[in-house]
Amino acid sequence: MSGDSGTRADIGLIGLAVMGQNLVLNMNDHGYTVAVYNRTVSKVDEFLTGPARGTRVAGARSLEELTGLLEPPRKIMLMVKAGKAVDEFIEQLLPHLDRGDLIIDGGNSHFTDSTRRTQWLRDQGIQFIGTGISGGEEGARGGPSIMPGGSPDAWPLVRELFQDIAAKTADGTPCCDWVGENGAGHYVKMVHNGIEYGDMQLIAEAYQLMRDGLGLSHAAMHRTFAAWNQGELESYLIEITRDIMRVADADGRPLVEKILDAAGQKGTGKWTAVNSLDLGVPVTLITEAVYARALSALKDERVDAARILKGPKGRFKPDAKPSVENIRKALLASKIVSYAQGFMLMRAASREYEWQLDLGSIALLWRSGCIIRSAFLERIKTAYDRNPNLANLLLDDYFKGILKTCQASWRRVVTAAVLGGIPVPAFAASLAFYDGYRSERLPANLIQAQRDYFGAHTYERVDQPRGTFFHTRWQARLTTS
């Protein structure tokens, strides 16, 4: 079962689900010898006699055998379910490792777990990398986006390998580079997934606006998404949506309409929303996208409510009907807000966790191989090159210009959807954020007055320096006025 006993493997990988298998085959294609192990040992046999047949991949029946197959310093990548399983494998590996060896967690772990593991293993003399990997099964096989973080001294050990197997841009640049210490890699992947949630919800809303609001056929929507993918909206998610519109079921009807409208989620979008609340960053669109999935899951309740609760029929009113081009512009503007909020969150996290994230470089990691790859990621890099201290992408001249040209359509689409009873939580949240962010004065002064009235929480005054706080005995003032 093991490979040639005289050959030491460059890296070991634990976990032979499809992602793990495809990464191994990707590494093999690039000239690396990989040793593999799976808790269910029969999967190792199946892999070696199946997809890995004829390769240099070596199999192991135990963790001890796996570590014995590796070239020192040993490098072992875990592709197992996030959470308890990662810690269990680390504990089982430790007796077989030497100081300076490296453990890599390539699953969708929470960034706080990666921070804890980096520090815990450092105390054991073991190096750790927690790396985000995006691109799904296809990306793992052909080249994913890779976002490593953890022990800085560990990066040189895998830099060449990671950059060899990563997706490449048109100019050959690998979509992989060091992100930062501790949990930075998994944090960036978490935000990537949050933006993915926002993008998917926005596209779903555009689809509903065209299907229900405008009454377009799936053939027409296929042509629309195909056209959109040739311009500013070019992206992987638009591309696959174009394809989905063409697929018919056995009866000739669109397959997408046979799918139950209850969206699943694995938690990374929720983690992004929760962390945004922890840091006080208004990532409203991503949070609405998470809640939209939660609302979709209430299918039985919605079916009952549809018979009881009255309102517009979910179609555009004839005198308020937007065009397909209006919807395109509203989608583009909302998508920009989605990315802007994600980068706002990373900017805040970089300060909070002392990571010194390079936001422009992170944008480049997502240009190819990953789920949210899109045409304007290069523009995001350019924006941060122009101004490394840019507070918000919306303030960059390029993105500001797009929003200016899209704004009338954006408002028309949201208004028409509200009047027609078509729910557009992400479109509406993005527009509300834009209007809130550009408002010099918001009604929060009243909220501060209320807080001071019932809880003596104090407030600042517009006619006094910031940082000077006041309290009013509101009821006493009522009696004297």
How would you describe what is shown here?
This protein is an alpha/beta fold and 481 residues long. 53% of the residues lie in helices and 7% in strands. α1 (18-29) packs parallel to α6 (136-142).
List the helices and strands and how they pair.
Elements: E1 11-14, H1 18-29, E2 34-37, H2 42-49, E3 58-59, H3 63-68, E4 75-78, H4 84-93, E5 102-105, H5 111-123, E6 127-134, H6 136-142, E7 145-150, H7 155-165, E8 180-181, H8 184-213, H9 218-228, H10 236-244, H11 268-279, H12 284-296, H13 299-308, H14 324-352, H15 359-365, H16 377-386, H17 397-420, H18 425-437, H19 444-455, H20 474-480
Features:
481 residues; eight-stranded mixed beta sheet; 20 helices; alpha/beta; 8 strands
Question: Could you provide a short overview of the structure?
Answer:
The chain has 481 residues and is an alpha/beta fold. The protein has helices at 18-29, 42-49, 63-68, 84-93, 111-123, 136-142, 155-165, 184-213, 218-228, 236-244, 268-279, 284-296, 299-308, 324-352, 359-365, 377-386, 397-420, 425-437, 444-455, 474-480; strands at 11-14, 34-37, 58-59, 75-78, 102-105, 127-134, 145-150, 180-181.
